[in-house]
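Q: What would this chain look like folded?
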Amino acid sequence: MKLPLIDDALFIDNSSLERFTTCPRSAQYYLLDKREGNEERQGLGFGKHIHEILDARYSFHPNVIPDDMSTVLQGRGTLARMTARADTVFADWIPEDGSFRTLATALNFINVYNETYPVEAFSVLTLPNGKLGCEVPFALPLCSVEVEGREIKVMWTGRIDLIYKREERVYIMDHKTTSMMVPSYFREFELSSQVFGYVWAVQELLGVIVDGFCVNALAFRKPTKTGKSLELLRHIVPIDQSLVAEWKHDTETIVGDLVNMASREDFPKHTKWCVNKYGICEYAPICGLPPAQRAVLLGSNMYRDVTWSPLS
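A: My prediction, written as structure tokens:
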């Protein structure tokens, strides 16, 4: 059985879980073989930089709401701090030819974001360690799976963008960069594994009840004469605790299926998503080869080692 265990524990996050539910073969290559496509995906890289810029705003957010929040935000140098972070993270950024994902776009975003949300009617939650609830990593025991006479602990991991409190209620905020803000965009979060998995994690970490999950949507598009190149919208998913409990049950079952597939060394490919709204699956060239040739391509320079972790 080939599983990336650490002290008999399997660390799994929402991205890995989504890969498995979409296509077990994709999870095998990413989670077990630790290989991913070598082609840089600028959309992901740009999104990470925008997250860094927002962290520069909220990691200094006052945890007590004064009468005039706008004065406090200006006084604490919010714009200057966000701009400095943008200069840092984009220092080595080389945009693709004709791309709108540039430092100039990020600087415009900073201005528009602060004009759109000059005042936040919430306090960023202070964690038990005294830090503000920004970019909070977690690794929590989810369940145990027994296979081949061996007990494997399953650790649920992730990184939460923001935990805040409003009118004595606790919420999670997740920053989502996208280029496709279609009318049904927010519907995908109503039953999202990430939403309920993050809610479960915060409730376990802090011993509180989470009332809502705020999707902080940031739509970046190529400028046109008629369309909006930047659109900012927010949507709160109300949390039903029975759905949180169901998420935990479903996730334990799904992870059990993953471990059993690893035990059998049999990860079937699901071909529905070989071509999807984001393009062609990065592993499609491998799956298109005869089985005896696939390991060679996976080990080639078309792919690289997976190094990303929500805990680092």
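The chain has a mean pLDDT of 90.
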